[in-house]
Amino acid sequence: MAEPILQVRGLVKHYPLTTGILFKKQVGAVKAVDGVDFDLARGETLGIVGESGCGKSTVARLLVNLEKPTAGEIRYKGEDITRLSGRALKAVRRNIQMVFQDPYTSLNPRMTVGDIIGEAYDIHPEVAPRGDRRRRVQELLDVVGLNPEYVNRYPHQFSGGQRQRIGIARGLALRPEIIVADEPVSALDVSVQAQVINLMGRLQDEFGLSYVFIAHDLSIVRHISDRVGVMYLGRIVETGSHTEIYDHPTHPYTQALLSAVPVPDPEAREHRERIILAGDVPSPADIPSGCRFRTRCWKARERCALEVPPLAVPAGFRDATGPVAHDSACHFAETKQVVPPEEDGAEPGREESGRGV
Ligand SMILES: Nc1ncnc2c1ncn2[C@@H]1O[C@H](COP(=O)(O)OP(=O)(O)OP(=O)(O)O)[C@@H](O)[C@H]1O
Ligand code: SF4
Ligand SMILES: [Mg+2]
């Protein structure tokens, strides 16, 4: 296998909890990201999925260097970018861009669309188009399916879906290799979500992009992900290919998340088992011992409180071949089909329609 474009190893971000006003004393830490490992291959989409507060946005901010990790490495083409600074860091940052969740707050309301997209060239003049910058911005608007004539309009003159297209155009302006999209469609209507996801699929093919695509629910990334990592309380608890995760999940948490995925076929829906998780997600400042999922796991036993299950192929599947043999951090991993397999022909990430939606 070719070297991954991004390799994340032991990534940790702890926020200190302090008391006292004049003399601050650390009394604990919010373990937002607590040991995350994954690879991103060139041209692939890795979906990262988990409930609110599990650390997804923190991972995103670390990847694009908006924050420094407490520990761990982020290797871009083999080089640990967490140690870079100055010009070297700036060059890498250009290649890893972010698309934000909320298209309503992430675009400056006082700037025209042309200035919002073109602003990136002020920060990185080395990739600014020679000559007519406005024309380049108009080309980008066209690429994301917006009318190039809208270049002088303001964000409030666009719908949510159109605004997210502007956010994507801004992300593309510097011709990055990797886009980290933090819940890019969560704030949009369901009807618009598919169009934005399809647009991202088309742009990926056109520009050879690699995506880290973050979502809080497995149904959103189903059509765009080549691989998926399921996050719980700051760690990835199961990771595998699209087929491994959707058709052969072995971690109870993934199975519970999948049981909430909408199933269009009424008959399949009727026979599907819903797994309702008991209790709330524990605080990331007080993570349970052993398996961090044990306080909500219906299969938890004594061993689960004593031993941390590693993210690896579980012992019971080590001799197996095929899609059950993938990384799952559970001592008692079992395969279970929760959602019916996809029908043939449901090709992911292709744009159907929708200029300007
Ligand atoms: N700057 C910070 N200081 C202290 N705690 C923080 C900070 N940023 C995030 N956290 C905490 O870290 C945890 C993970 O937050 P994060 O925003 O990464 O989660 P998320 O998975 O993106 O959630 P959501 O789905 O709601 O966007 C949360 O408990 C959050 O309160
Ligand atoms: S290790 Fe135990 S508590 Fe954790 S997911 Fe597996 S069975 Fe549940
Ligand atoms: Mg978030």
UniProtKB/TrEMBL annotation:
Pfam families noted in UniProt: ABC_tran, oligo_HPY
Q: Please verify whether the record's keywords include ATP-binding.
A: yes
Composition-biased stretches (Basic and acidic residues): 347-357
Q: Where is this region: Disordered?
A: 336-357
Ranges for domain ABC transporter come to: 6-258
Under PROSITE patterns, the record lists: ABC_TRANSPORTER_1 (PS00211), ABC_TRANSPORTER_2 (PS50893)
Please verify whether the record's keywords include Ligase: no
What keywords would UniProt list here?
A: ATP-binding, Nucleotide-binding, Transport
Q: One MF term in GO for this entry? A: ATP binding
The residues forming the signal peptide are none
GO terms, biological process: peptide transport; transmembrane transport
Give the family per the record: Belongs to the ABC transporter superfamily.
- List the PANTHER family: D,D-DIPEPTIDE TRANSPORT ATP-BINDING PROTEIN DDPF-RELATED, TRANSPORT ATP-BINDING PROTEIN
The protein's name in its UniProt record: Peptide ABC transporter ATP-binding protein
Species the sequence originates in: Streptomyces cyaneogriseus subsp. noncyanogenus
Q: What is the organism lineage in this UniProt record? A: Bacteria, Bacillati, Actinomycetota, Actinomycetes, Kitasatosporales
